[in-house]
Amino acid sequence: MRPLLHARLVNGRFGDPALFVQMLHRREALLFDAGDLSPLSTRDLLRISHLFVTHMHMDHFIGFDALLRVHVGREKRLQIFGPPGIAACVGHKLKGYDWDLVDRYDTDLAFDVLEVGAHGPERSTRFRFKNRFEPEALAISPEWNEVAGLRLETAMLEHHGACLGYAISEPVHVNVWRNLLEERGLVTGPWLQELKAAVLAHSSDERVISLSSTDQRSLGELRELVAISPGQKIAYVTDVADTPSNRSAIAALAEGADLFFLEARFSAADADQARERAHLTTRATGEIARAAAVRRLEPFHFSPRYEDEEQRMLGEVGAAFGRSLTPA
Q1: In angstroms, what CA-CA distances link 28 with 21, 31, 67, 147, 328?
Q2: What b-and-e string marks burial along 170-200, b requiring 16 or more CB atoms within 10 Å of the CB?
Q3: What is the percent of the chain with per-residue pLDDT over 70, rounded to a whole number?
Q4: CA-CA distance, 113 to 110, in Å (whole number)?
Q5: CA-to-CA distance for 226 and 36, rounded, in angstroms?
Q6: How far apart (Å, rounded) are the C-alpha atoms in residues 39 and 66?
Q7: Contact, 226 vs 194, CB < 8 A?
Q8: CA dist 51 to 34, 194, 231, Å?
Q9: CB count, 10 Å around CB of 133?
Q10: Whole-angstrom Cα distance, residue 98 to residue 114?
Q11: pLDDT at 64 over 60
């Protein structure tokens, strides 16, 4: 079965943190951290509907200007999640430009920024293009952690200051059996999304699904074309100190994840520097992922000092994780 979520590191294991997550058959895409985004195409940038920022160090947010640039003049609402204080940072970024020509545009671009603390959401702020990006207070939605049909989890972690870890997961995964489609001579199309939605909603077998303007079938006739399985889960954590509280919180956040992106900034031999700079070593990364019982681990944010030693770094992580890892 084809997974819904397809994630890739924008800058590999050594570059600025940025994780681009596409959703199968969906126009939206998710972005975790916004370091250098130049490898992403304009088309990719325009697909981003949600941005999840761990903290406000430059290598995690310098790409915001690229997002802003391609969206000006377009009708769009982009949601940003981050630790307390991120709304002020977004506001300062936006105030770095003159917006005296906004009246020439008919479209409105909005950045809705939600600040998330240790106990959940704390404040929501909207910045609108047509309002010259002046901050506007927003009510916090009770469904704040329902993101593009996915469930969002967060964990407040320690770096040099507050840093958020994230996990997203499907409630369940609905997949189409392509071989059954072919056997019945059915053509793929938008009706498959209607079929999946009907199955998820536990609709009755009498519900009508429109395959085309001239072909309507009952849900009962089509139900066997889909299968339901446990939903996919992706976790993302970077720039954290190796402390007992961080280890516990990260393992709980990523528990059972199908795919876990976790920083491994320093080699195990450089533990003193990792401790001084509030980062994880390769050994700590592997141990945390093993404690979380994740299916697949993708270590990243390697220090450039190891640029010619990727295989060694992966070997150290894999030894602690209990499974071998290979270069991307």
Answers
A1: 9, 10, 14, 11, 25
A2: beebbbbeeeeeeeeebeeeebbebbbebbe
A3: 99
A4: 9
A5: 39
A6: 11
A7: no
A8: 8, 28, 21
A9: 22
A10: 24
A11: yes
Q: How far apart are the first and last CA of the chain?
A: 22
How open is the CA angle 9-59-29, to the nearest 5 degrees? 40
Quote the tokens at residue 33. 């951290």
30 within 8 A of 21, measured Cβ to Cβ: yes
Tokens found for residue 105? 């545009």
Residue reference for tokens 């391609």: 70
Q: Dihedral through CA 54, CA 60, CA 64, CA 67, nearest 10?
A: -90
Phi-psi category of residue 325: left, alpha or beta, with phi > 0 → left and psi -120 to 50 → alpha? beta
Measured over the CA atoms of residue 116, residue 74, residue 130 and residue 102, the dihedral's sign is positive
Angle, to 10 degrees, between the axis of helix 64-71 and the axis of helix 86-94?
Answer: 50
User: Cβ of 41: how many Cβ atoms within 10 Å?
Assistant: 10
What's the DSSP call for residue 245? H
Find tokens 């000092």 and name the residue.
305
Instruction: For strands 76-82 and 48-52, give the pairing.
Output: parallel
Percent helix, strand, coil in the chain, to 5, is 30, 30, 40
Sign of CA dihedral 76, 37, 57, 30: positive
Q: What is the DSSP string of 15-47?
A: S---EEEEETT-S-EEEE--S--TTS-HHHHHH
For the chain, strand residue ranges (E) read 5-9, 19-23, 29-32, 48-52, 76-82, 109-117, 120-128, 135-138, 146-147, 150-158, 162-169, 172-176, 208-212, 215-218, 226-230, 233-237, 259-263, 297-300
Convert the pLDDT of each residue in 85-141 to its tens digit: 999 999 999 999 999 999 999 999 999 999 999 999 999 999 999 999 999 999 999
Nearest to 187 by CA among 156, 214, 207, 153: 214
